[in-house]
Design brief:
Layout: H1 6-19, H2 24-36, H3 40-56, H4 60-73, H5 79-91, H6 94-110, H7 114-127, H8 132-144, H9 148-165, H10 168-178, H11 186-198, H12 202-213, H13 220-232, H14 236-249, H15 254-266, H16 270-286, H17 290-303, H18 308-321, H19 324-352, H20 358-376, H21 419-425, H22 448-460, H23 464-477, H24 482-500, H25 504-516, H26 545-548, H27 554-566, H28 570-580, H29 587-601, H30 604-615, H31 622-638, H32 642-655, H33 662-673
Helix pairs in contact: 1-2, 2-3, 3-4, 4-5, 5-6, 6-7, 6-25, 7-8, 8-9, 9-10, 10-11, 11-12, 11-13, 12-13, 13-14, 14-15, 15-16, 16-17, 17-18, 18-19, 19-20, 22-23, 22-24, 23-24, 27-28, 28-29, 29-30, 29-31, 30-31, 31-32, 32-33
Length: about 700
């Protein structure tokens, strides 16, 4: 080998390996010689035998290093990624295992091996259950490949984790990502509305619930949510009406009763709130809501001072809460107010008349005494008397909610480590991480040569830290070894060179990782991207509604627009259709849907503009022309432009008399307009303005929609 006679050396080492198959050092030398002579397949075979030996004997880190060498020789061997993932997992290097699995996922995705992709993602999920990045990717793949039920379960589970954390921004992004895949799914739509509420967007939340209530107007869960939305958005009248509808279903629901009373107070209907409280205060008291009662009555007392009913109830409340001093303060304030009022009246009387009506003053004093007599009477039956067998300590119960926050780490980094990171952190090749290899270093010189060969092995594999550590161990028992000192210097030189420029092994590994890996999205900053790391880092999964879906993915924008329209979010739907119409194949369909959405909003002018724009499209097909003409007729009918509607329907009728119910539409409109004859239709692009009822339309040449 020193004379570079590699052919002869190969023959010699091949004979040794043949005679002693378990001689791993000789097999290692043979593999290296094959690499030097560009015999990759032979080298691969020898490395594979070495890797199997290390794996079966628990030397996982050594096995990982050999498999990485094999990966450099033949990157197309997909099985290596699987073996590397398993070995890293056994070694406890979860991050490295996940990186190898990601490489597999991307390879399977690019080659349409869906079953293998799903199995690998499931392994990743089981390996790191808290990694929401992987779970979202798994849900996406399941949903897109005829396994929607499993995908849906995964989505709901992920959203549950995020809701437990109170992270509704990320919930919103997941809803907007997956709703197009589950059109009409009430659970997702209701969840989206709830998420809007939690984010303080009550207008959009109530819009969705209103749409859902059209199908189930008596659904108590929907009514509860929309009552909250109305109350929070300041629509108190609707909130009160919804609460009363719920109370008809369940009069004992104190939560709804509280919402009703709060809405009356917020709407400054204090008398109505007081009436409601007086009717239900005993129920509130028995339900352990004494503190809430006290809050309501104290507020009403500040807005409606000197109201006897309020003071009587506060008297009972303070007796149970042991706050009698507050009642004395209220009485004292009331006496001061009445004394001031009496003094003012007396002063006015003196200034206005010479004759003092002392009897009037006495009457006033009597009235004042009467006013307070109620509170001083010891025989008053308190309105909120507790049961005789219950002590006052058990009457007022305080409840506190316990929140268990499920801490899901969102700082998980799925990106493939760079070459420099590998060198500095030794995450892939560091044999110093408590390796199980039973290496014994004795104090005798008989181990010197073996240890030097071991250090040379580490050096060749790029494991500089391990090679240096072993050399230090050698110097501990053989400090005079010049060969070891030279080896240590060689290690240091190669390490410095590596820091300046990654060695070929690490460089190739990282490059291949870029070819096969997909990146992650960081749930701390935003519901980031699951990326397919091709040469140009093409993004697979983005976060915001605009960022989640790639700009050129028009089908996703189109489907999302349909989902928004179904939920009554018209402006959002129009925005999505505008993005999707950049696709020439969907241009007419998107304009049509925009027109229908404007019509849903009652914006007939813009709806007509969209339909006319679609009719003028050069990509217009015959069936689309019929559909647009018919929809234009419906639009004119809604806008009570019956003459224009008749023109549109006649154009459709002239092309296809069996298209939907166009014949009946024409007959109905002719009867309404008093038209007897059936003249030739006018073009939908030039609608009639003032067609007389008694005279038929004059014949005109038929004009094409184009």
């Amino acid at each position: 080998m020193s004379k570079k006679q590699y052919t002869k050396a190969i023959k010699d080492f091949a004979k040794i390996v043949e005679m002693e198959p378990g001689d791993i050092r000789s097999r290692q030398k043979l593999a290296e010689l094959y690499v030097r002579t560009n015999k990759s397949s032979e080298a691969y075979e020898q490395y594979e035998a070495i890797a199997r030996y290390y794996s079966s004997n628990g030397f996982y880190l050594k096995a990982i290093a050999i498999y990485k060498q094999m990966q450099r020789l033949d990157p197309s061997q997909v099985a290596i990624y699987s073996r590397l993932a398993e070995l890293n997992q056994k070694q406890g290097l979860v991050g490295n295992a996940m990186a190898e699995y990601r490489s597999l996922v991307d390879y399977y995705e690019r080659n349409q091996l869906i079953a293998d992709e799903i199995k690998t993602l499931e392994k990743m999920r089981d390996l790191d259950p808290d990694n929401l990045n992987v779970r979202v990717k798994l849900a996406e793949v399941l949903t897109n490949n005829d396994r929607k039920d499993e995908g849906f379960e995964e989505i709901i589970s992920i959203i549950g984790v995020l809701k437990d954390k109170g992270d509704f921004d990320k919930c919103l992004k997941l809803y907007t990502m997956f709703l197009p895949h589950f059109p009409g799914n009430r659970q997702l739509q209701t969840g989206l509305a709830h998420t809007f509420f939690e984010k303080g967007d009550y207008v959009r939340g109530t819009t969705i619930i209103e749409t859902l209530l059209k199908d189930k107007p008596s659904d108590p869960d929907l009514l509860r949510q929309i009552s909250r939305g109305y109350a929070q958005s300041g629509n108190y009248l609707r909130a009160v009406a919804t609460c009363r509808q719920l109370l008809q279903m369940d009069p004992s629901d104190l939560d709804i009763r509280e919402t009703l009373i709060q809405c009356e107070i917020d709407n400054k209907h204090y008398e109505l709130a007081l009436n409601e409280l007086e009717e239900w205060k005993d129920t509130f008291f028995k339900g352990g809501r004494l503190e809430k009662l006290k809050e309501y009555y104290e507020f009403l007392n500040s807005e409606m001072p000197h109201t006897t009913t309020i003071i009587q109830t506060l008297d009972s409340i303070y007796e149970h809460t042991g706050e009698g001093g507050k009642l004395l303060d209220i009485i004292s304030e009331r006496e001061d107010d009445i004394d001031t009022e009496s003094s003012d009246l007396l002063s006015d009387s003196i200034l206005g008349s010479v004759d003092l009506d002392i009897e009037g003053d006495e009457d006033a004093s009597a009235d004042s005494a009467f006013s307070y007599g109620i509170l001083e009477d010891d025989n008053i039956d308190l309105l909120l008397e507790p049961d005789d067998e219950e002590s006052s300590d058990n009457t007022c119960q305080e409840f506190s909610d316990s929140f268990i926050e499920l801490e899901v780490s969102s700082n998980i980094n799925l990106t493939v480590a760079s070459a420099t990171d590998d060198i500095e952190n030794d995450t892939l090749f560091d044999l110093d991480l408590d390796e199980e290899a039973p290496k014994t270093v004795s104090g005798g010189r008989e181990n010197l040569q073996a240890d030097l060969e071991e250090a040379e092995f580490y050096l060749q594999q790029g494991l500089f830290a391990d090679a240096a550590r072993l050399c230090q161990d050698i110097l501990a028992y053989a400090p005079e070894s010049q060969e070891c000192r030279h080896k240590l210097q060689e290690i240091e030189d190669q390490r410095n060179a590596q820091l300046e420029k990654p060695d070929s092994l690490t460089e190739v590994v990282v490059d291949e990782g870029e070819d096969f890996g997909f990146g992650d999205f960081d749930f701390d900053s935003e519901l980031d991207q699951l990326q397919s790391i091709d040469g140009d880092k093409k993004k697979v999964f983005k976060t915001d509604v605009d960022e989640q879906i790639a700009a050129d993915d028009m089908e996703s924008h189109y489907n999302l627009g349909i989902a928004y329209r179904e939920m009554g979010l018209h402006d959002d739907a129009i925005s999505e259709f505008e993005k999707a119409q950049k696709d020439p194949l969907r241009y007419v369909d998107c304009l049509t849907l925009k027109g229908l959405t404007y019509s849903d909003k009652g914006d007939y002018s813009n709806a007509e503009k969209m339909f006319q724009q679609a009719l003028a499209s050069p990509q217009l097909e015959d069936i689309q022309q019929l559909n647009l003409g018919y929809e234009l007729g419906l639009l004119y009918e809604r806008a009570e432009r019956h003459n224009d509607a008749l023109v549109s329907y006649r154009n459709v009728l002239a092309q296809d008399s069996k298209y939907r119910d166009v014949t009946e539409k024409v007959a109905t409109l002719k009867q309404r307009l008093g038209i007897i004859d059936d003249p030739s239709p006018r073009s939908a692009t030039t609608p009639a303005q003032n067609t007389p009822k008694s005279e038929p339309d004059s014949p005109k040449r038929r004009v094409s929609f184009l």
